């Protein structure tokens, strides 16, 4: 089954100041980069999704926070797809790219768990991608007014697992090939 690694919205805005840092950000970046290394070793395309929102100064096109995070192991051949909604499939070239490259399985990492990751995971399922993987220790979010980030993550993983994705740790994921 041909795979693609999709890294969602790991952008500078989440690292610019101490108030908006993703929960467990150092470990998340380390694990995302480990998944990128795995993808390159296995000739799996790496797709970076970049959120663009003219109404949010942190994610406005060309602003410092809009840039993909400088600590990611990006290469020139990686695909970068910009989106303007929480769904990476909606009005983007993602579906066409996946079809053109005969991708059958998506491997997800990124942010934010309850927003763009959740919406894109569910949308992928609706687009016919039913055998997807989420790297459990390679996605994150921010604390909300109601729940702490680890609670948000745990809640969403409990809903997704064996419905929309199979959840694997980075260690299990890397040794699965």
Name a few traits of the molecule.
177 residues; alpha/beta; Rossmann fold; 6-stranded parallel beta sheet; 31% helix; 21% strand; EC 3.5.1.-; Isochorismatase-like_sf; Isochorismatase-like_dom; Isochorismatase-like_hydrls
Could you walk me through the main structural features you see in this protein, from its secondary elements to its overall organization?
Belongs to the isochorismatase family. Its EC number is 3.-.-.-, 3.5.1.-. InterPro entries: Isochorismatase-like_dom, Isochorismatase-like_hydrls, Isochorismatase-like_sf. The chain is an alpha/beta fold and about 180 residues long. The chain has one domain (about 5-175): Isochorismatase-like (Rossmann fold, 3-Layer(aba) Sandwich). It is about 30% helix and about 20% strand. It has 5 helices and 6 strands. The chain has helices at about 25-40, 95-100, 115-125, 150-160, 170-175; strands at about 5-10, 45-50, 80-85, 105-110, 130-140, 165-170. A 6-stranded parallel sheet has the order 3-2-1-4-5-6. Helix 1 links the parallel strand 1 (about 5-10) and strand 2 (about 45-50). The termini are close together.
């Amino acid at each position: 089954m041909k795979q693609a690694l999709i890294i969602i919205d790991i952008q500078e805005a989440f690292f610019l100041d101490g108030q908006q840092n993703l929960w467990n950000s150092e470990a998340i970046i380390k694990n995302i980069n480990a998944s990128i290394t795995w993808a390159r070793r296995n000739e799996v395309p790496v797709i970076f999704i970049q959120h663009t929102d003219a109404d949010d100064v942190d994610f406005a096109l060309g602003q410092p926070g809009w840039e993909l995070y400088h600590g990611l192991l990006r290469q020139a051949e990686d695909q970068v797809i910009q989106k303007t909604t929480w769904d990476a499939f909606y009005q983007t070239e993602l579906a066409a790219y996946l079809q053109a490259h005969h991708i059958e399985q998506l491997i997800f990492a990124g942010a934010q768990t309850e927003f763009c990751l959740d919406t894109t995971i569910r949308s992928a399922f609706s687009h016919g991608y039913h055998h997807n993987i989420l790297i459990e220790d390679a996605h994150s979010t921010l604390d909300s007014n109601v729940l702490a980030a680890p609670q948000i993550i745990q809640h969403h993983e409990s809903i997704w697992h064996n419905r929309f994705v199979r959840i694997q740790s980075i260690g299990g994921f890397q040794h699965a090939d």
